Design the sequence.
């Protein structure tokens, strides 16, 4: 049987409920189309609400504490990061004869070849993030134009958006008039009086929260939406490049984010060690070439986790690791929303 190609798309700091199929304010036509063709998990949880540990977990299928990567390296003297001793999904695919390519944000602290990637480029986050994502997209599409479709490919495309610094992507600004932008109910309902001192102090630091900043938080949320729409367009361009090569129908696709952002919920902004769905629930869509009988296609409310399924641990073929989230969801009990 012909081996499928695999496309793994990661965006940065996107809340799980900001897809257009969930949020009527969001405009994400390309991701909505993917969601309609896929299993869309409503209860998939990031292993950590910060970039570096979450991305380490995505690469290895292991929990951040198991890897010793618990915070962004450089913060508070922390130096742990991925290294060649950690078995990654890139290494597994390469061992099985796949071309392994990675374009975009890494945040691994190790070179891509050492982590199993034959081809690739790290695109650091520099403002404007939309410009970086355009460069990631163009580089990916040029690579695909030259790739032999008969050679199985494991391709990771890792976008920077909608990570701060937030910006208005002007081509999408008219989709989000100010009167359509609303903050979460918890911004108004939660005065934080019952919350731990740590959270109250974080709210008062004027960086991660400000109870008086309703207008500025709405402004930031509007920027966030335009960045999500731009990232969606970039994904659409990558899909079109695969379709042009006749590869899309032979490709397993997974879309997700490393974690979310508070975006005004509970009077907070950005990310950090806070126990909220806005940070932990991400928006995964898994598009297998053939439906998984236990799940079919469409929305799945089963709990789905990204850690605890090490690369190569689910079977002899490397795509058994890609199916790990689907397998975890199939076997896990239904979860109820905590939003």
Sequence:
């Amino acid at each position: 049987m012909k081996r499928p190609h695999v496309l793994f798309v990661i965006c940065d700091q996107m809340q799980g409920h900001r897809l257009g199929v969930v949020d009527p304010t969001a405009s994400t036509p390309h991701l909505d189309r993917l969601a309609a063709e896929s299993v869309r998990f409503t209860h998939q949880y990031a292993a950590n609400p910060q970039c570096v540990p979450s991305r380490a977990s995505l690469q290895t299928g292991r929990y951040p504490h198991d890897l010793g990567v618990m915070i962004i390296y450089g913060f508070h003297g922390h130096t742990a990061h991925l290294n060649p001793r950690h078995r990654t999904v890139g290494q597994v695919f390469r061992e099985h004869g796949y071309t392994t390519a990675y374009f975009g944000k890494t945040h691994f602290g190790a070179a891509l070849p050492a982590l199993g990637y034959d081809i690739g480029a790290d695109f650091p986050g520099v403002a404007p993030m939309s410009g970086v994502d355009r460069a990631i997209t163009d580089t990916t599409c040029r690579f695909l134009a030259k790739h032999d479709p008969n050679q199985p490919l494991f391709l990771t495309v890792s976008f920077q958006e909608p990570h701060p610094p937030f910006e208005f992507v002007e081509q999408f600004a008219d989709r989000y008039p100010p009167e359509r932008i609303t903050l979460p109910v918890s911004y108004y309902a939660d005065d934080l009086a019952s919350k731990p001192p740590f959270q109250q102090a974080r709210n008062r630091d004027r960086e991660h929260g400000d109870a008086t900043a309703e207008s500025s938080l709405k402004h930031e949320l509007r920027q966030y939406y335009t960045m999500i729409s731009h990232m969606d367009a970039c994904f659409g361009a990558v899909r079109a490049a695969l379709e042009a090569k006749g590869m899309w129908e032979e490709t397993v696709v997974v879309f997700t984010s490393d974690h979310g952002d508070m975006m005004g919920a509970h009077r907070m902004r950005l990310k950090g060690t806070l126990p909220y769905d806005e940070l932990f629930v991400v928006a995964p869509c898994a598009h297998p070439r053939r439906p998984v009988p236990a799940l079919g296609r469409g929305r799945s409310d089963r709990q789905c986790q990204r850690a605890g399924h090490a690369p190569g641990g689910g079977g002899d073929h490397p795509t058994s690791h890609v199916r790990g989230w689907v397998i975890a969801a199939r076997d896990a009990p239904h979860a109820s929303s905590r939003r």
